[in-house]
Design brief:
Layout lengths: L15 H10 L9 E3 L7 E2 L5 E10 L11 H17 L4 E11 L5 H18 L2 E9 L4 E11 L15 E5 L4 H18 L11 H8 L6 H8 L6 E4 L4 H12 L1 E6 L7 H10 L3 H7 L6 E5 L4 H4 L5 E9 L4 E4 L5 E3 L11
């Protein structure tokens, strides 16, 4: 059956702020004993424990961080949660709760927010996360979405960015560059559609990279895997702004240098073929693409045998003395200084 495009939309003013929050959150469940009180009071209550609390927040703004012309609201809700959970897992912690705050203009009916919250709920159910609060307000233009994630970890388990030491190996999970290329495909198809609205995009050949852009997954499995392998990283960060930017954060805070090897960068075949189609250098995409939400970490060289051959992990380089700088070693064995060319929130 064809979808009825003229379905009646419910104005948010009919519910009011508290009615809206109650409506959107009524089907959420709690998974953690640390959640004493979630949505429905002046503030949430989390039971304190001997573990350290990890807190991270991200703000997503329509037209800056997402484009609703090709980002479905359900996917946006899911991705917004992933962005924050990824930061918690990058601290080697377990995520437990989130708060969600949104500002929306009057062009969004209740049904649109139901779609957004369906994505948030799917993320919570998939990763066993409790929604414990937030805020809603009006916006004069578009949508703003802010999510805070809260996690817990034993003090001795928390991993920071500043612990990398010379001879440590640099390791990444998964593969790189897919999310950036997925965005390029979506932007191209948007431009084609604007010229000819009758043209329907054929995205079958790009399914993997588009999913990497629209529905990324936070790597909760990697800290669990490392624990099973008895490997404790010396530093860790998630790859949101591109591998180059992230390893530079680790090196700067660890007072160290690094060598990244071009021929070791993990690339999916769809990334390689799409780079050829767009005439983009695959190495540049892997280094600077961003939004992969993989984990980048360093380990002692003594732990190499424990991770060797693991399909989830790739050793891409090693940490050096600070005076050796931060460099990419090309396939031709030339060293090129790394530059942070990934996402910059304040760049025009």
């Amino acid at each position: 059956m064809l979808e009825d495009k003229n379905q009646e939309k419910t104005s948010l003013s009919e519910l009011g702020e508290f009615g809206l929050i109650k409506h959107l959150t009524k089907h959420f469940s709690s998974y953690h004993k640390t959640t004493v009180k979630s949505v429905g009071d002046d503030a949430a209550v989390i039971d304190s424990s001997e573990k350290q609390t990890i807190v991270t927040t991200d703000l997503l703004i329509e037209g800056v961080h997402f484009d609703l012309s090709y980002m479905p609201l359900k996917h946006l809700g899911y991705k917004a949660v992933m962005v924050n959970l990824s930061d918690v897992y990058a601290m080697n912690a377990e995520a437990e709760q989130i708060t969600v705050s949104i500002a929306i203009s009057n062009r969004f009916p209740l049904e649109a927010l139901e779609e957004l919250y369906a994505g948030i709920q799917l993320a919570c159910n998939t990763y066993n996360i409790d929604l414990i609060g937030g805020d809603t307000t009006s916006s004069t233009k578009g949508m703003l979405l802010s999510i805070t994630a809260i996690g817990k970890a034993n003090k001795e388990d928390v991993i920071y960015r500043d612990g990398a030491k010379p001879t440590d190996l640099i390791v990444v999970s998964g593969d790189l560059g897919g999310a950036y290329l997925g965005l390029q495909v979506l932007e191209r198809e948007k431009q084609v559609f604007q010229v000819n609205p009758e043209n329907q995009p054929d995205l079958d050949n790009y399914s993997y990279i588009i999913e990497r852009q629209l529905k990324p997954e936070a790597r909760k499995d990697i800290p669990e895997l490392l624990k099973e392998l008895d490997v404790k990283p010396t530093s860790m960060i998630d790859i949101s702004d591109g591998l180059s930017s992230e390893i530079m954060h680790i090196c700067t805070q660890s007072n160290a240098g690094c060598k990244i090897y071009e021929d070791k960068l993990p690339l999916d075949p769809q990334v390689i073929s799409t780079c050829e189609e767009f005439d983009i250098d695959a190495t540049m995409v892997a280094l600077s693409g961003g939004e992969d939400y993989e984990l980048l970490f360093t380990i002692s060289i003594d732990d190499y045998d424990k991770i060797k051959g693991n399909p989830n992990l790739s050793v891409v380089g090693h940490i050096t003395e600070e005076n050796q700088g931060m460099n990419l070693v090309t396939r031709a064995n030339q060293e090129i200084e790394l530059k942070a060319q990934g996402w910059n929130s304040f760049k025009g």
